[in-house]
Amino acid sequence: MATYSNPKYSADNYQANRPRYKESLVNTILAYHQRDNPAAGAELAVDVATGTGIFAQQLPPHFAKVIGTDISATMLESARKAERQSIEYVEAPSENLEFLADHSVDVMTVATGAHWFDIEKFVSEAQRVLKPSGTLAIFGYTGFAHFVDYPQCDKIIKEYGLGDDRLGRFWDRGREVLVEGYRNYHAAFARNAWPGIERHIYPNTIEGEPSAELPPILDSEPNIMDFQ
Question: The whole model's pTM is what?
């Protein structure tokens, strides 16, 4: 994620113009977390790759303590400026959260950021810090338009936006993991024997994947400022 971690990148523009997530997404995560154990803990939530804290800022009403982590000091500086709640921000890589004790986290979230990680190392570290009854929620949006009435256009815009002979060579490495719906995580979860894995896709724009009866997760559309 060389672009976002570059000190010259405008984190304030990112904070001001990045889409926000619907509260229903938070509720979906909480419902899963408490489904098999209504008394599942709500002491500590950690939002990894928090950026400017956009998703982290939705968590304090539901947890006693919220921590946001990121490798970009510039992003975290913007997060602190926008902060209106008691969130602790820590500069740390997702693969090495050494400030967290073993089995201390109730819920860990990654909002449109897990494609930048070393998958094996992150999955291992998440397993270390999560409580036995803890929940890891990885989610994101590709940023590509979905043409409801003209699905053939989905393929065209993806080919133009990601093709090696088009715009694909300009993306930071890792973007393809997001576009594939984080399916790259499947093998790592299996090797680490993660229980209760659920995967939902909306809309059904990933070839070979089933659609899910879930609503969109965003409250707003990307602004052109996001790409400056």
Answer: 0.81
